[in-house]
Amino acid sequence: FPRHLLPVFFLLYLLMYLFTLLGNLLIMATVWSERSLHTPMYLFLCTLSTSEILYTLAITPRLLADLLSTRHTITWTACASQMFFSFTFGFTHSFLLTVMGYDRYVAICHPLRYNMLMSPRGCACLVAWSWVGGSVMGLVVTTAVFHLTFCGPNEIHHFLCHVPPLLKLACGTDVPVVAKGVGLVCIMALLGCCLLILLSYAFIVAAILRIPSAEGRHKAFSTCASHLTVVVVHYGFASVVYLKPKGPQSLERDTLMGITYTVLTPFLSPIIFSLRNKELKTAMTKTFLRKLHPQSS
């Protein structure tokens, strides 16, 4: 960034970071306080909010500190920790979005079996496996990268400890193998999640089109609108950032787009769920008014 614009970017990212934390905490508090929201869909939403808070905590505070600091240094351990936690919470987020797609598929395509398929134990298993899967991805990527030998310059041309800029600092015959292996594992995991979500929505759309009344079709689709919007935003930004061709002069642009993706996507998520989900929006308003006027409740 140009030095004279650093305070502007710091204030912008700080406000977005605080809004991300407050928005997700508000969603979690509303779900926990409203008994009508104690359903699998909102349990998954609570867990998704938790993963987004932890993801931003792993990256944004360091980014904000670097925007104000003149010395941008990070230790080997802190760099490895940042990579592990960012990949863990990032992939957990993707796995939870997939689970939420499956939840909507069961609710619309198999409503009579919903309570059996989405039992408390079943939901807990889906959430647990999402966290386990994210942790395994974080561990695999971090271990593979930090087992390499680093030589020569030790300057990371990025705002966080990310795989491509770190691979540029590594040397040895293992670097191309690790680069291809890590890339393949990450792309397969993300594409797998994306394909499962698309498959869920293919069945959902087919089931909705069979509903005879327009009101019934609208009601069924409205329960999926917020999740579908977040999926489009999440995978849309990710594909622009990570799947576009790399040019020789694209380093600064890639860094700026990476920051935008890292800060903007978690910022938009609570807004989308709050505005596109009528049930949650009503509950949040009721909770806010109850806190504002406790004597009237």
UniProtKB/TrEMBL annotation:
GO terms for cellular component: plasma membrane. The chain crosses the membrane at residues 6-29, 41-64, 84-102, 123-150, 182-209, 221-243, 255-275. GO terms for molecular function: G protein-coupled receptor activity; olfactory receptor activity. The keyword Nucleotidyltransferase does not apply. The keyword Transmembrane helix applies. Residues 23-273 form the G-protein coupled receptors family 1 profile domain. Its main location: membrane. Keywords: Cell membrane, Disulfide bond, G-protein coupled receptor, Membrane, Olfaction, Receptor, Sensory transduction, Transducer, Transmembrane, Transmembrane helix. It comes from the Eukaryota. It is found in: Cell membrane. It is a multi-pass membrane protein. PROSITE patterns: G_PROTEIN_RECEP_F1_2. InterPro entries: GPCR_Rhodpsn (IPR000276), GPCR_Rhodpsn_7TM (IPR017452), Olfact_rcpt (IPR000725). Putative odorant or sperm cell receptor. Odorant receptor. This is G-protein coupled receptors family 1 profile domain-containing protein. It comes from Panthera tigris altaica (Siberian tiger).
